[in-house]
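Reminder to self: tokens first, then the designed residues, so the page reads top to bottom the way the pipeline ran.
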């Protein structure tokens, strides 16, 4: 079934395998549930695809999460019973939309939470917040746990329409900091301190994203953490096996497959000819001279997938050469298969290209089953 058609059978195409995503979601939910951890299924990497949100909830995800409120508005309109979680700190310009369409938002600014409280009063709503602790990755969150605890107490005691749902942290996004026993223990301890003061359990102690799964799988996730927000690990599960060396039985890495068509095949030198300056994006790359090579030109480019080096050819003989805005160049010299003009070349994708491909209006999305 086609979600949006540019024209009939247009290329490039992104095949989305719902059954494989569903299998990944079930396996990860099972691992988490065994350890007393709820999963918030993150849909932003897939452009907020509603069918994927549905698979995630069917597989046991407690919330549907995204950094983009537009995607959560869409979820809430189609599935009013799904609990939504906003991952990016709310903008002051969107507080009314947040309390209307979002059940839980991640926060680090008391002024924003006050604005949410006000919007709740105006609209007769209630809203839950998770306070973010910055454990060193230096994106969002209170850097000082004491300040976070003070904010938590203030919300608990003084805000009418805002419920303190819990605390959370994010790692490995800006600062590439690894989740560890040490940094996540600080989060768990902060949660315990708040629980002691307010004399009740917190609903959510959210210990990160896909990158926290290795700790959980190795039995090292600190006690007290009871939620993870998982996107990549469910959607493509490429990083765990290929970067973290963690293979989870039964998971699929080809839930998203990108396919583009060959528009030229020629033998060419591998080093550009003439005086070199800069490429289409102003960079001055270094080109290795491998002599004359057989190259295929594909009709898809950086504006579709952003990073050609994060596409993995399904046919292992293919080497990635480079891309410009609208073209992808591959080396097919070592292939035994005789590729022809018009042939289709398919790739597995890492997270980067998945985000861009999912959001490109030039890429046809095709839901496949298998
Ligand atoms: C994107 C995001 C996630 C999910 O990250 P994955 O690596 O896809 O699992 C979790 N939390 C926050 C705050 C995010 O922005």
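Designed residues (370 positions):
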């Amino acid at each position: 079934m086609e979600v949006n058609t540019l024209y009939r059978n247009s290329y490039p195409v992104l095949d989305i395998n719902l059954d494989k995503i569903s299998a990944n979601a079930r396996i990860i939910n099972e691992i988490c549930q065994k350890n007393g951890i709820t999963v918030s299924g993150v849909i932003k990497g897939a452009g907020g695809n509603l069918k994927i949100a549905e698979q995630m909830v069917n597989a046991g995800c407690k919330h549907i999460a995204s950094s983009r409120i537009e995607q959560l508005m869409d979820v809430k309109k189609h599935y009013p019973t799904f609990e939504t979680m906003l991952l990016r700190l709310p903008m002051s310009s969107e507080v009314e939309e947040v309390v209307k369409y979002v059940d839980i938002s991640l926060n680090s600014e008391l002024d924003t939470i006050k604005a949410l409280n006000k919007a709740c009063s105006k609209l007769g709503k209630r809203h839950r917040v998770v306070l973010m602790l910055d454990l060193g990755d230096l994106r969002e969150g209170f850097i000082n746990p004491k300040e976070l605890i003070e904010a938590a107490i203030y919300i608990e005691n003084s805000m009418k329409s805002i419920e303190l749902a819990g605390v959370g942290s994010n790692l490995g996004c800006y600062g590439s900091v690894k989740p560890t026993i040490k940094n996540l223990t600080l989060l768990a301890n902060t949660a315990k301190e708040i629980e002691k003061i307010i004399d009740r359990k917190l609903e959510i102690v959210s210990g990160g994203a896909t990158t926290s799964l290795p700790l959980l799988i190795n039995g090292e996730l600190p006690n007290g953490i009871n939620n993870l927000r998982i996107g990549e690990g469910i959607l493509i599960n490429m990083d765990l096996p290929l970067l973290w060396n963690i293979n989870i039985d039964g998971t699929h890495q080809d839930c998203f497959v990108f396919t583009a068509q060959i528009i030229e095949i020629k033998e060419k030198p591998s080093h550009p000819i003439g005086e070199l300056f800069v490429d289409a994006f102003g960079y001055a790359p270094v080109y290795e001279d491998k002599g004359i090579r057989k190259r295929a030109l594909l009709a898809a480019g950086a504006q579709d997938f952003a990073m050609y080096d994060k596409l993995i050819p399904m046919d292992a003989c293919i080497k990635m050469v480079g891309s410009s805005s609208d073209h992808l160049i591959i080396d097919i010299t070592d292939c035994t298969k005789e590729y022809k003009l018009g042939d289709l070349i398919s790739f597995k994708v890492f997270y980067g290209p998945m985000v861009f491909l999912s959001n490109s209006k030039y890429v046809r999305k095709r839901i496949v089953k298998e």
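The mean pLDDT is 96.
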